[in-house]
Amino acid sequence: SGSAFERAELEDMICSISGEVPEEPVVSKRSGLIFEKRLIERHISDYAKCPVTGEPLTADDIVPIKTGNIVKPRSVQAASIPGMLGMFQIEWDALMLSNFSLEQQLHAARQELSHALYQHDAACRVIARLKKERDEARTLLAQAERQIPAHMAVPNGPNVAAVSNGKRVAEDGDIGPDGKRIRPGISSTIISELTECNGVLSQQRKKRVIPPTLAPVEALERYTQLTVNPLHRTNKPGILALDILYSKDIIATAGVDSNAVLFDRQSGQVVSTLSGHSKKVTSVKFVADSELVVTGSADKTVRVWQASEGGNYDCRSILKDHTAEVQAVTIHATNNYFASASLDGTWCFYELASGLCLSQVEDTSGSSGGFTSSAFHPDGLILGTGTSNALVKIWDVKSQTNVASFDGHSGAITAISFSENGYFLATAALDGVKLWDLRKLKSFRSFAPYDENTPTL
């Protein structure tokens, strides 16, 4: 029949590229070969020549062959069940080979990942070892810095600034079995110096008279504000402490902006800004008859500053013996020592020339909380401290023991001051001011001139 003839004719037309019966057959004018239209057009666009003969070939050399629209004959393999099973087997084998290849690639990827993780772990171990070596080196450096000023310090001398200028002089002593630092202690030589100072000042105290320049109460009532000096940054306003160097008429202020500012009272000009603390400065004190200033801060450190050429002050020592905010610093009458008080419940006694912590005294009673204020007695053998639990504690400097405690305030003790004759003590808290008789160890007068929201220095 005609359809059988057309099928036989179509089976004779085989694409020279694919080897199968073409759906859209075309013939080359040059070689007479038959191709699938889409395949030969793609080959011509890529290579511009015949895929069989290699002769130049263009799209114009291709002529379509018109054939009847008949169904493409089924392959011999798909014409029977055994043939189809053979095709399925071939596809299954190809799938298994592909799966095996993917498993090999997965295994290789796992090995690379394991190697990368091993390298990462090794790098972490190396970094940890380097950090440990760095910390050990820092510890050795701190010990060396501690030993240098301890042996080479000269009071108020130029070598002191050269050795410890801006350096850390903390972490004195070794660690004891209780986990605390072992301090060298207050030696008998220093105690003799303190006792001698006490004897001299006690004799002078008996001869003291009220200075005629002391303003009477009537004059205080007439006081008015004369000037306003904007010293600290306005984004963190607040002055927490101040001190006056009467010999030079210089005032130091401690600010919330983490700076201490020194300014000349007469001219109102800033002499120097002491920058270095990372948190608010809670206390500032001049060392009389010297070029030194001591500051305490909420960053747990105490800094000793020394005047340099040009009127600026450079940080000479950074003392890191406290573990909580330093609330107060106070200078001893000898001007060779000072003490700091902290919320960690300890006060430290320092040698000013070397920055060495000679003794760190802890309040073991457990009833005082942390220290919030401190001041030396004018004669130098007694230290007064105020606590966050409204207690006032009196300490013997020579033995570093608590010899008296006063209670009666409400709230933390914000300020403490001994009278010039050494007989009385004034303390301030949120509930007001109390006066204490140190001879009778009791309060004899209280003042409440402000409410609980009024800050005190």
Description:
The protein is α+β, with helices and mostly antiparallel strands and 457 residues long. The chain has three domains: 2-73, Zinc/RING finger domain, C3HC4 (zinc finger) (Herpes Virus-1, 2-Layer Sandwich); 78-148; 158-208 and 232-447, Methylamine Dehydrogenase, Chain H (7 Propeller). The protein is 27% helix and 30% strand. The chain is built from six helices and 24 strands. The longest helix is centred in the first third of the chain and has 72 residues, at 81-152. The relative contact order is 0.07. Ubiquitin-protein ligase which is mainly involved pre-mRNA splicing and DNA repair. Required for pre-mRNA splicing as component of the spliceosome.
Helix content: 25-40%
Give me the Rg, rounded.
46 Å
Helical element count?
A: 6
Global structural class: alpha+beta
Strand content: 25-35%
Total beta-strand segments: 24
Cα(first) to Cα(last) distance is 121 Å
Mean pLDDT: 83
Q: What are the low-pLDDT stretches, counting only 5+ consecutive residues below 50? A: 1-8, 149-173
CATH architectural group of the largest domain: 7 Propeller
Total of domains:
3
Major pleated sheet? 5 strands, mixed
Function: Ubiquitin-protein ligase which is mainly involved pre-mRNA splicing and DNA repair. Required for pre-mRNA splicing as component of the spliceosome.
Domain U-box: 8-82
WD repeats: 274-306, 364-405, 406-446
Keywords: DNA damage, DNA repair, mRNA processing, mRNA splicing, Nucleus, Repeat, Spliceosome, Transferase, Ubl conjugation pathway, WD repeat
